[in-house]
Write a structure and sequence with these properties.
Length: about 130
């Protein structure tokens, strides 16, 4: 039986396994590998803090992921397919490694994050494209 997400070590396992999938993914991998050229040594600890704060309300994350993703969208247009793949990879990674209340919360939060980002990114884009 799988255990629930309980510690920062669990979060590190989740985040590391997730991003290994992301790097190899044909739909979104290029965004991380070629467009952003992510420095994984810097990015992964930020993601550990983000998910630790998201699941355990630790206050360890300081950042503005919405603004970062809006900037990314200006570099390479993000689509609903990108967010769908990100969510699929994240939830499948959670399901492979964990089971329990926090695991379910992680999947719910990932879906909420992806949904909110899409609404804000695509709404901002369409409002800029509107001619008055």
């Amino acid at each position: 039986m799988k255990k629930d997400i309980e510690t920062i070590t669990d979060i590190q396992l989740l985040v590391n396994a997730f991003y290994e999938k992301v790097k190899a993914d044909k739909t979104i991998g290029y965004i991380f590998n070629d467009v952003v050229k992510v420095n994984w040594e810097k990015h992964l600890p930020v993601m550990y803090n983000f998910w630790e704060n998201t699941l355990f309300f630790t206050g360890t994350y300081e950042g503005n992921p919405m603004e970062l993703h809006k900037q990314l969208h200006r570099l390479t247009p993000l689509t609903a397919a990108h967010f769908k793949e990100w969510t699929l990879l994240f939830t499948s990674t959670v399901d492979e490694l964990f089971s329990g209340t926090k695991a379910e919360l992680a999947k719910q939060r990932a879906l909420s994050i992806a949904t909110i980002m899409q609404v804000k990114i695509f709404t901002d884009q369409s409002s800029r494209d509107t001619i008055f």
